[in-house]
């Protein structure tokens, strides 16, 4: 299992309630590009539409050895493969509880490209400040222990 992309900002902006693993629908050149590490999850999000989940705003760069790809959009929407039961459950939680789906990381499992995403609640500003303060205090304690 090799991590190809990690969304570090997501853990800072959201509190994760539940995580899920799903597959992605990609074309051949996109798979090659992702396995080469040319993918970014920064600013990406997951949207539910017509009973399906879609990964939006995820950058997968063009794979140059595949030759000219005329109408390739690196930010195109990509379908997420998940069981219907789980999709319905997630859609219900998103609509009723005001939660959101946040992509966390993309990795390979055997030769498949997998996406880990979380059902999350956005953190308030004061919660983010508390995390920063705790990190600072922990860092200072570690420095004092070294002395």
UniProtKB/TrEMBL annotation:
<comment type="function">
    <text>Required for rescue of stalled ribosomes mediated by trans-translation. Binds to transfer-messenger RNA (tmRNA), required for stable association of tmRNA with ribosomes. tmRNA and SmpB together mimic tRNA shape, replacing the anticodon stem-loop with SmpB. tmRNA is encoded by the ssrA gene; the 2 termini fold to resemble tRNA(Ala) and it encodes a 'tag peptide', a short internal open reading frame. During trans-translation Ala-aminoacylated tmRNA acts like a tRNA, entering the A-site of stalled ribosomes, displacing the stalled mRNA.</text>
</comment>
<dbReference type="GO" id="GO:0070929">
    <property type="term" value="P:trans-translation"/>
</dbReference>
<protein>
    <recommendedName>
        <fullName>SsrA-binding protein</fullName>
    </recommendedName>
</protein>
<keyword id="KW-0694">RNA-binding</keyword>
<dbReference type="GO" id="GO:0005829">
    <property type="term" value="C:cytosol"/>
</dbReference>
<dbReference type="InterPro" id="IPR023620">
    <property type="entry name" value="SmpB"/>
</dbReference>
<dbReference type="Pfam" id="PF01668">
    <property type="entry name" value="SmpB"/>
</dbReference>
<keyword id="KW-0963">Cytoplasm</keyword>
<dbReference type="InterPro" id="IPR020081">
    <property type="entry name" value="SsrA-bd_prot_CS"/>
</dbReference>
<dbReference type="GO" id="GO:0070930">
    <property type="term" value="P:trans-translation-dependent protein tagging"/>
</dbReference>
<dbReference type="GO" id="GO:0003723">
    <property type="term" value="F:RNA binding"/>
</dbReference>
<dbReference type="InterPro" id="IPR000037">
    <property type="entry name" value="SsrA-bd_prot"/>
</dbReference>
<comment type="similarity">
    <text>Belongs to the SmpB family.</text>
</comment>
């Amino acid at each position: 299992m090799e991590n190809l992309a990690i969304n570090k900002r997501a853990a800072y902006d959201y509190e994760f309630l539940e995580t899920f693993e799903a597959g992605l629908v990609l074309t051949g050149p996109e798979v090659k590009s992702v396995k080469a590490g040319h993918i970014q999850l920064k600013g990406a999000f997951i949207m539910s539409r017509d009973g399906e989940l879609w990964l939006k705003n995820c950058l997968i760069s063009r794979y140059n050895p595949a030759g000219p790809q005329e109408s390739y959009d690196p930010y195109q929407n990509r379908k997420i493969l998940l069981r219907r039961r789980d999709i319905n459950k997630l859609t219900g939680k998103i609509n009723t509880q005001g939660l959101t789906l946040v992509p966390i990381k993309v990795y390979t499992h055997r030769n498949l490209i997998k996406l880990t995403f979380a059902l999350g609640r956005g953190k308030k500003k004061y919660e983010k400040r508390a995390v920063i303060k705790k990190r600072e205090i922990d860092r200072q304690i570690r420095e004092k222990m070294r002395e």
